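Pair request: fold both.
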Amino acid sequence: MDAIIYVVFSIFAFVCAYPFYYIFINTISANNLSERGKIVFLPQDIHWTNYTQVFKIPELFHAFEISLARTVLGTAITVITSAFLGYMFTRQTLWHRKLWFRMTAATMYFNAGIIPWFLTMRNLHLTNNFWVYILPLAISPFYIILCKTFVESVPRELEEAAEIDGAGTLTIFLKIILPVIKPILATVAIFTAVNQWNAFQDTLLLVTDSKLYTLQFLLYNYINQASSLKALVNSGSSGVNIAASLAHAQTATSIRMTVTMVVVVPILIVYPFFQRYFTKGIMIGAVKG
């Protein structure tokens, strides 16, 4: 049975990891071979020209700054609001606590659709506005429920002792609750960071100002316009260099895969730092009694 389990999970791990490996080896292999689908398991004619050329795209670094800003700021705000509301929903003194919690949870199951959502964002003057990346995602019912469940596992005696000493609600939240619920905060943070980093639909629907384009939206555009982008990138190289090494000339496939790696690597680097809190936060928040 142990052997079967190891085999099954090894196959599953391979299926999960191979697409990233496949994309990477195609970005560092000869572009003419990659274009014809000849690179499958091992790289050939290794070079790093794809990365040096893609990094020359003018909008890339600005889009990276926008994505980084929305990820950091959006994650911080979402974590704080989720933790505070999750804590407040455990307070017996909150007026109509159960009613507000049920109304919040109901939004997980019902939504008006894209058109009413777009009209609401427009009426709030959030189109072509950086805050469109932050405010609509500041409150998430799912994360609030995670934090509420976790806070309920914290001994009530801690709050009672602080109340006896004269601590108010905000003081208890900041000095008692927040330090205790770090695992669930890290869990919410990694969920939110991944969602913020990967989001592009809000840019597609609400943003026309190129100064507010995110890295993922550029990836979306580049995948759809890889052929024209190939000519743009190649135009930045000298004809002599391209003639000397046709294998390194940019192709639509190399552009797609290289930009994909550039977009994915940052979140892959961040994830391991939060992963050790991930399982702990989910399991502790799910177990009661």
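--- second member of the pair ---
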Amino acid sequence: MSRVERANESDIPGIVALNNRYAPQGLTLPRTADFVYAHLAEYRVIRGADGEIVACAGLDEYSPSVAELISLAVSQDEQELGHGKALIKTIEKLARQRGYADLFSVSYSDDLFLAAGFERTPLTTYPEKIARYEKIDRSELRVGEKHCFRKSLKAG
């Protein structure tokens, strides 16, 4: 079973390196050490036997009711071991604890998010995300296979 831990300051270089390994293919958005530091309380990691970070994910607030699951990345040699599923579950729990009503993510990993109880939704559901993409790189809006997934966290 994947052991998910809260990230600490010494994890910042490992999170940045793992996340940015997938940025050139458009699988993740590039992250800086400053970004990770600013969101450190919202990052969770899984370590390999040697203590190296083999998987990570974070939570990014858009409004008091909406947050995004970000930076989901798993080392290639650690994929298919349940790390992604464990991180999604942990970030969802964190979002619930923080009182968000809605959690979304933009990803190529359709099967993973659908299996975790998310549903596909148009990216236009989150105009705030589109605005952020426009600030970072408009080409992100034209990526064909990436889908937006959402999960309502409201009780009931």
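Observation on the second member. The CA atoms of residues 47 and 53 lie 4 Å apart.
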